[in-house]
From TrEMBL:
It comes from Denticeps clupeoides (denticle herring). This is Uncharacterized protein. Pathway: Lipid metabolism; bile acid biosynthesis. It holds the Pfam family p450. It is found in: Endoplasmic reticulum membrane. The lineage of its organism: Eukaryota, Metazoa, Chordata, Craniata, Vertebrata.
Length: 523
């Protein structure tokens, strides 16, 4: 154990040697950090599982950390976790430095500007192909778990958009089918992802046997030689594969970095899509405003009412003009995001905080920002645990970006995607794909949550990893939209008890429901 030196933040060591405060932190990180902040002030150091982490909790001091490129490194920590979990070589090694920088700059190039428009359009096509396969024909209602439904649609559409389609899986005319391979890939992904908290905490993957087997199977499908047989592989993956080939990395490491991309592009997007649809369906005002927006924007471009398998187009400008959908997604992200931004101190140095106070930081220590502090701050967001669909809309119905704490405007008020050099490069694509999914569901479907009672809770065991999933799934009923009936398309608390068996069956496959867990009726 170490003793606090002059100038260093208060030290919260805990009473368990080595693990320090890991147990109390692990039970409920936000509650633990709040307790420690009220005891120690805005900046404090905790002993966590053998390391020392200094938490900066004052949002006005976030920029001071995000800007500290020279003294604080984000790659070291991210790489150490990534190697352990995915199994690839450590790209922090000097021989890979310049090649890995190239890979990084590709993210910005391929996930912004004109490339973003292309990948977004590709996602829209895949979403519709997959959705049409799932929607019941002729006005019949279908039932499924909401989580299993969103996972199924988004996983397959996202996978096809990023990694393309395996040759031979096309079904004539009807578009790509969810063949056994896709279902297996998704099942393996869910198994691998569910062991993520343990693997990040340091448990060797060989001890999580199912996750280890799932990773092995996933990696086998990601060898370059195999992916080169796919058609419609995104430019992002093609260029990334070229860059890794030039770096002379071994073939299995290359395949493992493709698994990283699968995880990065899916693990947060799936629960974020779930929460966006869930909250929208639970709030009558949100649903009405969102449907009115989608109907207004899409009718203008001449799309007729649905009911037939027509592919619709949504241009970049149209998507950008869907501010209500944007606000619903951002509000869902605010409520469910529990990411942690970690940097490693390269040297001993003094961090100057917004208040002018300084904190002495030791080389090798971690600095952490925990954005949930901001997202759940009642001073910034009144009634912070409540879903308010229009929180991110200003008076003129455009995106709101002025949020205040103690009368001062905040630079960082919403951080589900991190910030600064380590900010998620897929953030624009993620927002677009979730908005597209919501728009398609609103345009084509009537939707119901028959057993919507008390709000679902988030599963805190994944705190620190990004968007928290729900603790359990809920039943969703859906059918092709009945425009004539003008039913509003969204009802709650009706037709109790129908179709659980069918829903459970699909849910197990899509990771929404665990075997043996019933779709929960919360009322
Ligand atoms: C709602 C969905 C998403 C959320 C909440 C999310 C969140 C995040 C966060 C918090 C980070 C780490 C930031 C940090 O350490 O400061 C990250 C990194 C990353 N994300 Fe996302 N992400 C999402 C979707 C996506 C998508 C769709 C893609 C790609 C198509 C993507 C690609 C990446 C990559 C490649 C990194 C690592 C970047 C690096 O190494 O610098 N993400 N994401």
């Amino acid at each position: 154990a170490r003793t606090r030196r002059a100038g260093e933040p208060p030290l919260e060591g805990g009473w368990i040697p080595f693990f320090g405060v890991a147990l109390s932190y692990g039970r409920d990180p936000l509650a633990f950090l709040r307790r420690t902040r009220s005891k120690c002030g805005d900046v404090f150091t905790c002993r966590l599982a053998g390391g020392y982490i200094t938490f900066i909790t004052d949002p006005f001091s976030f920029p001071a950390v995000v800007r500290q490129g020279r003294n604080l490194d984000f790659q070291k920590f991210a790489q150490s976790i990534s190697c352990r979990v995915f199994g690839h070589v450590n790209f922090n090694a000097p021989m890979y430095t310049s090649g890995f920088q190239e890979v990084h700059s590709l993210y910005r190039e391929m996930l912004q500007g004109p490339s973003l428009t292309l990948i977004t359009q590709s996602m829209l096509g895949h979403l519709q192909t997959v959705l049409w396969r799932s929607l019941p024909k002729g006005g019949a209602w279908e039932e499924d778990g909401l989580q299993s439904f969103t996972n199924r649609i988004m996983f397959e559409a996202g996978f096809l958009t990023v990694f393309g389609q395996e040759r031979g899986l096309q079904a004539g005319g009807a578009g790509p089918k969810a063949g056994p391979c896709m279902r297996q890939v998704m099942r393996n992904f869910m198994v691998f992802d569910s062991a993520f908290p343990e693997m990040v905490a340091g448990l060797p993957i060989h001890l999580c046997v199912r996750a280890w087997l799932a990773r092995k199977a996933l990696v086998e499908t990601f060898y370059h030689a195999y992916l080169q047989q796919h058609y419609c592989v995104s430019a992002l993956i093609q260029k990334r594969m070229d860059a890794f080939d030039r770096m002379r990395v071994d073939e299995s490491s290359k395949a493992q970095t493709n698994l990283c991309m699968l995880w990065a592009s899916q693990a947060n997007t799936l629960p974020a899509t779930f929460w966006s649809l869930y909250h929208m369906l639970r709030s009558p005002e949100a649903f009405q405003a969102a449907r009115a927006e989608v109907d207004r924007v899409l009718s203008k471009s001449g799309h007729q009412s649905s009911g037939t398998e027509t592919m619709i187009s949504i241009s970049k400008d149209q998507l950008d003009s869907m501010f209500v959908l944007g606000s619903i997604v951002e509000e869902a992200l605010r409520l469910s995001s529990a990411s942690i931004m970690i940097r490693v101190a390269n040297n001993d140095f003094e961090l100057t905080l917004d208040s002018g106070q300084t904190a002495a930081i030791r080389q090798g220590d971690y600095i952490a920002l925990y954005p949930q502090f901001i997202h759940m701050d009642p001073d910034i967001y009144p009634n912070p645990t409540e879903f308010q669909f229009d929180r991110f809309l200003d008076e003129s119905g455009q995106r709101k970006s002025d949020f205040y704490k103690a009368g001062r405007r905040l630079k960082h008020y919403l951080l589900p995607f991190g910030s600064g050099a380590s900010a998620c490069p897929g953030r624009f694509f993620a927002m677009n794909e979730i908005k597209q999914f919501l728009a398609l569901m609103l345009w084509h479907c009537d939707l119901e949550l028959p057993h919507s009672g008390a709000p679902l809770e988030t599963d805190c065991s994944r705190a620190g990893l990004g968007i928290l999933p729900p603790t359990h799934d809920v039943l969703l009923r859906y059918r092709l939209r009945d425009r004539g009936a003008n039913s509003g398309g969204r009802r709650e608390g009706q037709k109790e008890g129908e179709g659980e068996t069918d829903g459970e069956k699909k849910g197990e496959e899509a990771g929404g429901l665990e075997k043996g867990k019933a779709l929960v009726k919360t009322d």
